[in-house]
Amino acid sequence: MSQFYKDLLGRIEKREIVVGVIGLGYVGLPIVLRFCEEGFKVIGFDVDPEKVSSLLDGASYIKHIPSEMIAGFVNGPSQAFTPTNDMSRISDVDAIIICVPTPLSDKREPDLSHVESSAKDVAKYFKPGALISLESTTYPGTTEEVLLPLFSSDGFKAGKDFFLVFSPEREDPGRMDFTTKNTPKIVGGVTQRCSKLGCALYSKIVENVVQVTSTKVAEMSKLLENIYRSVNIALVNELKMLCDRMKIDIWEVIRASNTKPFGFQAFFPGPGLGGHCIPIDPFYLTWKAREYDFSTRFIELAGEINTNMPYYVVQKVMEALNSQGKSILNSHILLLGVAYKKNVDDMRESPSLELIRILREKGAVVSYNDPHVPIAISHRKSFKMKSTSLDYGKMKKYDCVLIATDHSAYDYKLIVDNSRLVVDTRNATAGIKSDKVVKA
What is the pLDDT of residues 242-255, one digit of tens each? Predict the structure, then answer.
């Protein structure tokens, strides 16, 4: 038995190891805090100096994570959490968890630059016997094809001199019923010893750890979870457009179908897909499938439908304005909600950003309000906007109010009563009878 394996397993059980987490965003920061809660020392790494500075001051930049918790671990008696952008401190940790973004390129191809950069830092500084876990969503084979050669370049052997696993993140920002602690964690290692060490580590912060036979299985399982959602959301989005033509309320249809106690799970339509997973991850598998001369038609069709939803919504806005004798050109439109889902401050891949871009291209004057996002910045859409104050009594100054995200903070009855025209993409106005409301 590898002495490194035996020593690390024993130190994990005694909570004597130092854990390193690379990437302190929506995935990495909750993991840091869970290890701190369980009595581990943690060093958090991020290339963004503003994030590191904020954390050192005990301040949170993620709405659902309280600053008091961060301050307690950074500056409190335990001093369990040390944020830094000094990657050389990887040499001080025993287990390294990589939680960096995996976006798509402009050509919808995997962009592994953040993973590769982090892995190179790990390869440069990690000490023999370290456990390395990749959590960033990617295509099957990434752990063995990209990371493993980097860590093996000096003659080190996986399962003996270092230990490598893939354990996909399952983070749902803003959700209260399922957290890092009670959401089952999948772990797959490049060897059996790697898997056992990965399970030992995560079992200290997660109630249920599910071991699979390989990193590829773990990688594919994450993609299946997100593709399942993407395809089913595309299905209800397509049915929404059909039901609109047939003068059928898709929301009532879904409610009716959802009364079936078996064989049906409700998915809901919207203005497009948002978040860090569903709009992006399926295309990692589409790209990888080409190596095997395989066409992933369901994935590509779902992506096409979901990507086109903002255009459908804008068309509905144009038709609604036209019914009132107005052109979209120079119309004043208030968009409610730029976060990708209700009651969070997460804008990643939000369809609202695409709605703003398209509306502006068509000549509309667009403002937005979001109680959770005071400033909206989109480098890809090339704009920066500030949330306008919401005065229900002055909403008639807008030609149209577009509900893009159904935050609970909004009083939808007041919005409808005080607006000229409301286009609702989320069924937020359900139960409010008014000729001013158009569903989209």
Answer: 999 999 999 999 99
Residues for the chain: how many in total?
Answer: 440
CA distances from 55 to 46, 59, 269 (A): 11, 5, 37
Q: With 0-12 CB in 10 A as exposed, 13-18 as middle and 19+ as buried, what is 16? A: middle
Examine the residue annotation and report whether 99 is marked as an active-site residue of this protein: no
Element (H, E) at 316: helix 297-323
Q: How far is 416 from 411, CA to CA, in rounded Å?
A: 9
Instruction: Based on the fold, state whether residues 205 and 249 are members of the same structural domain.
Output: no
**428 and 291 in one domain?**
yes
Same domain for 378 and 245: yes
Contact 392, 328 (CB under 8 A): no
CB atoms within 10 A of CB 225: 17
Catalytic site residue from 99, 194, 243, 277: 277
Please give the residue range of the domain that contains residue 8: 3-213
pTM of the full predicted structure? 0.91
| Average pLDDT of every residue of the chain | 94
Q: Do 435 and 300 fall within a single domain?
A: yes
Domain membership flag for residue 250 = yes
Based on the fold, state whether residues 317 and 389 are members of the same structural domain. Answer: yes
Is 326 inside any structural domain? Answer: yes
Q: How many domains does the chain have?
A: 2
Asked if 266 contacts 235 with a C-beta cutoff of 8 angstroms, the reply is: no
The DSSP letter of residue 155 is S
CATH number for the domain that contains residue 156: 3.40.50.720
- Cβ–Cβ under 8 Å, residues 339 and 350: yes
Cα torsion 159, 163, 166, 172: sign: positive
Q: Is the pLDDT of residue 109 over 90?
A: no
pLDDT at 268: 96
